[in-house]
Amino acid sequence: MPTYEYECQQCHERVEAVQKFSDPTLTVCPLCGGELRKVFSAVGIVFKGSGFYKNDSRGSAPKKTTTPSTNTSTDSSTATPAAAPTPSSTPSTPASSTPSSS
What is the Cα Rg of the chain in Å? Predict the structure, then answer.
């Protein structure tokens, strides 16, 4: 049942009443006997049931994972140049061209 708020026009006292929609409105202040008027204010909205949330309207598709995948494109920043020599292909000691005499 809704809660209605009334304000007295004489003493400005506020009164809350829980009433059915079919109940008559209150007209007499219980404190001073003055005239009551309904006070209208913003209503708090409560969403109940399914269909109100972002994930309610989605299918049951699996979620995407955030793990990094292997990149198959040729990106210049990650690709190694083909013309660069590797350390194993260069000789570690130079070959001497003159025979040593003993």
Answer: 42
- 56 within some domain: no
Q: How many Cα atoms within 13 Å fall on the side-chain side of residue 1?
A: 10
For residue 16, report the phi and psi dihedrals to the nearest 5 degrees.
-105, 140
Residue 13 has pLDDT above 90, yes or no: yes
Provide the sign of the torsion angle of the four alpha carbons 7, 8, 10, 11, taken in this order. negative
Residue at 31 is within a domain: yes
Structural domain range at position 10: 3-39
Q: Specify the pTM.
A: 0.42
Residue-level pLDDT at 47: 76
